[in-house]
Amino acid sequence: MADQATLKLEGKEFNLPVIIGTEDEKAIDINNLRDQTGYVTLDSGYKNTGATQSAITFLDGELGILRYRGYSIEDLAEKATFLEVAYLLIYGELPNQPELAKFEYDIKHRTMVNEDMRKIYDGFPVNAHPMGVMAALFSALTAFYPESLDPNRSPEKVNLTILRSMAKLPTLAAWAYKNSQGHPLNYPKNGLDYCSNFLHMMFALPAEEYKVDPVVADALNKLLILHADHEQNCSTSTVRLVGSSKASLYSAVSAGICALWGPLHGGANQEVIEMLEKIHADGGNVQKWIEKAKDKNDNFRLMGFGHRVYKNFDPRAKIIKKACDDVLKKLGINDPTLEIAQKLEEAALTDPYFIERKLYPNVDFYSGIIYRAIGIPTNMFTVMFAMGRLPGWIAQWKESRENAEPIGRPRQIYTGPKLRPFKSMNQR
Ligand code: CMC
Q1: Ligand 1: residue whose CA is nearest its atom 19
Q2: Residues 97, 45: one domain?
């Protein structure tokens, strides 16, 4: 196998080292390209650019493989708890019993947020989107825990910030929802596990005993695991990039929340359910919407379809589709949007437009139907994605800081005007 690549430019030859990953992923190392040649590479959307070497997640888009730290997503979704997976991603190995018990304890005992922070909620309009509220409040954690700002922080301080992040995000998320309902906020209940505690903060009503349905808590556990990391996607790259300036973990994650919000990324799960509802309300003519998605003069896209890296199937979507069937059956729910989703999938998978472009259902296609079945309101879907993705963001931020990666600062090719003289107002 080649151990270097040769580049011919302006009559000269340059040798570039080749890097091979543990799963045989190949890269041409261009770290010194500009110094050697004066050229940069151009790759909009970073479709061919490896931004880092990472030991966290392995993904093969052609074969539909996703592994966290070497463990298959199928195994983890079936057998692990979300906090076990979070520990694995952040610290590199699965925890043993005492390690997991300590991790759970350390998180449970940090779920409260400062009462002054609670007052900030009062400043938001009730119809504020919870993603915006959450991004603002997560960044505001720096104000309450200023030691997180120290660029030369000790490992102990970093770990404290990690535990606080894991502990407080569900509280901030549930409160964003409660605030949007004009309801009183529920305090965390530390006797409950991570998922059950979140459900309690979301759904408990005053003067009523709220019992967490284990089917619902299990479904949530699985969904959070499936979202926990996905290597260098848009939000994760954002987290690493913000972290590279030595900004605090809270600020980096807040930026990740904003990046995730867009409809081409995590925001797609909200868009999918809205699309399915629209198709249902429109009479359920699936073929009409497939034609709209194919029409280049129509800006409608089949939300929850297609992926930058999966070109065969999205392994997460496979697991979620089955979980969706199971959850709806167990809860005795008959959701007409599930039927529409299944028909859309069937129609798209046999249509040459989708086959040629390798467009398959992605993680967001069925997740919204499960979220709806377990009572999560539509504008909270992307918030759920963020809760799941948090350990991945943390792990990636931590890895990038531990590897002392340099500040991220891409180059560009300038296409604007050349130098021209300034003209005063009466000359223009
Ligand atoms: N519906 C119809 N056509 C599509 C779709 C779609 N959902 N996705 C891609 N295409 C077409 C696109 O028009 C283009 O066609 P052509 O070659 O004729 O111009 C071709 O397929 C390639 O698309 P692209 O936009 O160049 O591909 P990309 O890799 O830049 O974008 C994507 C990937 C996920 C942004 C895109 O597939 C999309 O917009 N999907 C819908 C939004 C969505 O579900 N996003 C969630 C992604 S999974 C969650 C996550 O990890 O973020």
Answers
A1: 296
A2: no
- Residue type (1 letter), 64: G
Please identify, by atom number, the ligand 1 atom nearest to the C-alpha of residue 265: 52
Q: What's the one-letter identity of residue 399? A: E
Q: Is the pLDDT of residue 231 over 80?
A: yes
pLDDT score recorded for residue 182: 86
Judgement on whether residues 79 and 46 belong to the same structural domain of the protein: no
Q: Catalytic amino acids?
A: 307, 364
With beta carbons less than 8 A apart as the criterion, state whether 174 and 198 touch.
yes
Domain containing residue 244: 71-262
CA 162 → CA 60, 88, 106, 287, distances in Å? Answer: 29, 14, 10, 47
Ligand 1 binding residues, C-beta < 6 A? 230, 233, 264-266, 268, 293, 301-308, 357, 359, 362-364
Domain-located, residue 97: yes
pLDDT in tens, 163-206: 999 999 999 999 999 988 888 899 999 999 999 999 999 999 88
Does the pLDDT value for residue 126 go beyond 90?
no
**pTM of the full predicted structure?**
0.93
Same domain, 34 and 92: no
C-alpha 89/C-alpha 373 separation (Å) is 29
* Same-domain pairing of 36 and 112: no
Instruction: Choose one of 205, 231, 262: the last residue of a domain.
Output: 262
